[in-house]
């Protein structure tokens, strides 16, 4: 937990944050309506090191889950198969790590047979429509500059997970940059789901925005707060 001057605050539950730009392993491509009957989900590891997926799993909206225990090499793809688990008319697919935390999530719409949904480029923003599958190979596309530049200017600055009686939980964002950042379409999540609505407003240079929750959503024993922009890039803070 940090005060506005960056020093620890004794008046709140103490928390130490591990800041990151988002997960190294993401859902990269989804083939929910295959011609051969075998549905496929591709993961991509953007890191420079191998990631062990032992204990990880994939889950879809109706509650079907399947294990994906495997190692994924740096800058590489791994494809996992299933049958009759993904809804052709639209579904939400979630990647969950060995600790039970949500790593990545994507909701897709109705899908034509033999077409897939994909991030373009690999690990970047999701394409606006279906495409010809490129499983176990690069999806192509150009990098999206706004995701990186926006996050360079935003910090998850303070979190109050255990407020005094009558108080509200909150997450404070800080913009240390010299330009305003429009947070339209940005969303705050915690491990169990969405923390707030998508309307976070605009944050002026060297200014703060505090987002309150009137219901108990943050876990007092530890949680992950994630800020996601419209391009799909994520900024995560974990506590304690």
Helix count? Answer: 1
Percent range of helical residues:
under 10%
SS strand fraction: 35-45%
The main pleated sheet reads as: 4 strands, antiparallel
Which spans of ≥5 residues are poorly predicted at pLDDT below 50?
Answer: 1-21, 143-150
Q: Could you say which overall geometry the principal axes of the C-alpha atoms support?
A: globular
* Count of β-strands: 19
**For the largest beta sheet, what order do the strands appear in spatially?**
7-2-1-10
Q: N-to-C SSE series?
A: EEEEEEEEEEHEEEEEEEEE
The residue-averaged pLDDT reads: 79
How would you sum up this structure, described in words?
The chain is mainly β and 240 residues long. The chain is 3% helix and 39% strand. The strands form six sheets. Strands 7-2-1-10 form a four-stranded antiparallel β-sheet, with no helix packed on it. The protein has a four-stranded antiparallel β-sheet with strand order 5-4-8-9, with no helix packed on it. The longest helix has 7 residues. It is globular and about 55 Å long. The N terminus is likely disordered.
